[in-house]
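Newbie here. two chains, one complex. Structure please?
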Amino acid sequence: MTLVQVLKDIAPILAVVLPAIAAFFAYRRQENLRGEQLRRGGEKGEMSAFAGALVDKGQTDRWIAAMETLAGALADAAGELRVVREQRHVAQQQTNRLLDELADIRRALEEMASVKRRRPPSP
Amino acid sequence: MWRNWLARWRWIWFEPRDAPLWIGMSRLPTRSAEILLAALMLSIGLTLAAPGSTFDLPHWAVMRQWVTEPVLAFHLVAFGFIRCGAIISDTRFRFSPVIRVMGCCAGAGFWVTVFLAIEEASELWASGAPMLLPIAIVCALFETYAAMRGGTDAANLDSFGVRERAFNRRHGRDAGSGA
């Protein structure tokens, strides 16, 4: 049996196996390429690199969950700041009220002084 | 051109697997070779399944010894249908690229078998080299090319769920819980 005959005998099997091997290498190359793109995008801080990488439903669901977590954290921080703002508002109102009272007292004292100045001393 | 950009950005907002049919159809020309080969496989199978004995022709003298006509016709039609279904369902079904690759492997095997059968049919060579010979080998090469394209699509769609499992492991989630 010559080499050519052996090659002819195994050719159909080779023809079935070779595309599978080629597909495997294409798969691996694409995975590497994708990882490289994501890594570069991450280094540059491009959100679109990650958004563009969402190709399956599970990934998209996880992305949405992460975004919701982030939005929840932001809402919590905003709530804390709102409390601080309320506290500062209350303190400011108290300060205003005290200032008003002080002004009233000052006005009263000035009035008393002016009345005292206008009225002659009693004999 | 603007339509290309629109389509590209749509992918970010729309789930490719849930994409409408016309989006899938607009992506079909990028896999022309595979579509052509799948249609060819289906049509050859239907031709063999048609009444009459195609294998009585001198081209198929050797093929006749290896496989009977109805058996080959059944397999070609079955594989052709499955391949066409996987191509049409495109990104809607995660595992479809793997099915496409399997179809490509079967197609390459078929075309190389055709090549060998034609090459062995010595009475054909009396009047020069048969034209089916280059056609078969070119088809086998393009089947390999289409299989590579299928492998790329399998990586893009995460057909085996490798990335999803890695993500779940990293974040301590149960497999297949989605979010």
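Moderator note: The helical segments of chain B are 2-13, 21-26, 32-49, 63-66, 69-89, 96-120, 132-157, 162-170. The two ends of chain B are 36 Å apart (CA to CA). Thread marked as resolved.
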